[in-house]
Amino acid sequence: MTEPLTMPVAQDAFETLAQARHSVRAFLPRPVPLALLERLLAAARLAPSGANLQPGRFWAVEGAVRERLSAALCQAWRDQVPEAEDYGYFPRPMPLALRKRQVAAAQALYGALGVARGDGAGRATQFERNYRFFDAPVALIVTIDRGFGAGGFMDLGMCLHGLMLAAQSQGLASCAIGALASYPQIVRDALGLPASEVVVCGMALGWEDAGAPVNRTRTEREALERYFTVLR
Prior knowledge:
This protein is α+β, with helices and mostly antiparallel strands. It has helices at residues 13-20, 34-44, 63-79, 96-113, 120-128, 150-169, 184-191, 224-227, and strands spanning 57-60, 138-145, 173-177, 197-206. It is 41% helix and 12% strand.
């Protein structure tokens, strides 16, 4: 009978990096050099993909384009103007077990900010910051060609995680912004993208403002036994 492998006691470099990464929603005004951003994206693209198709594109928005995009998104959010999303993100209906995780994540975020549960205006103000990319020096839009199926989204997800870990390895922080998927046509219009580009998410990237209360937000992960089973 083969003895089970024993895990090393020392934490390795990947575990250290993965545990250090967290969603950051307040950044320092320090710019990120374009050469560094390009290096991070090249490292992220090393992620595996089926048949090496490497789905997904990244669009950095700056200057007038970024201002125009954020203004349109913020106005749509304030006016509560709904838009047909390109893809479904959350389960519909949301199972109770997942709803509890969603609520816990919101409590962690607004608790760090000191925003009370009944403070709708305070929560709305914080949520609107998604559409300003949390004032990060780098604002990215992530898209995928409409012809890809679910497998393409899986491959792009691995690339996105690679980008966030690559950023973390260089001392930068990031936050994926799923809220941008709520207004895909506004994004396409502002960036001049064709209808064939599905708006997947946004991403804020830059140097963390470690003193900002919002960056004290932490969320828990499920225990291993809840998602891992050995079948014999």
